[in-house]
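Technical note accompanying the year-one report. For the benefit of new consortium partners, we illustrate the data format agreed upon in the data management plan: each record pairs a sequence with a structure-token string. No post-processing was applied to the example shown here.
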Amino acid sequence: MTPPAPTSSTNITFTNISMTSTINDKEIRIHMPEPFSGNRTKLRKFLQDCKIYLTINKEQYNSKECQCGFTLALLRGGDAASWKEQYVNSITNATGDINFETYAVFEAKLRESFKEVEQIQNAMQKLHELHQEKKTAEDHNIEFRLLLDQAGIVVASQTVLIDLYQWSINTSLCTKILSVETIPDTL
């Protein structure tokens, strides 16, 4: 179940949190982010989807309470639900008022708690095992660049990247690339 869409003077309620937001414009309906249950490999996509949604609807989610509350509403089940409960308790004062931090601080705490410890090693392993096979060159390039990003590889040495890339593409494509008049020296 997705969180209720805010309307003019709507109460948004979810576990341990209730807030009111007055909204002048309608919320732009795009695909809601999938709820996050604590799977560390899915955190990055979850936060990216939340940021897109919040950015597109920035007039409706124009406060730290609305931004954090929206994202907290999508922390459901598993370790994420436990983390949400602990987090909300940590920002609740003695009188029961919730004092939200900035979205950047909230996001940093969420990332720290659910960081994929072996993300770099996993991405490097996947890069070394990556083969184009029956994928299109475009699909392969997207996967290659995503793995570079996940591995934290900054494009400092094109030579190393080109070498990695050559090993990952089909031999026929590599031959075509190397047979052009001017051989590319960047990805």
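Partners are asked to follow this layout when depositing records. Residues 137-151 form the longest helix (15 residues).
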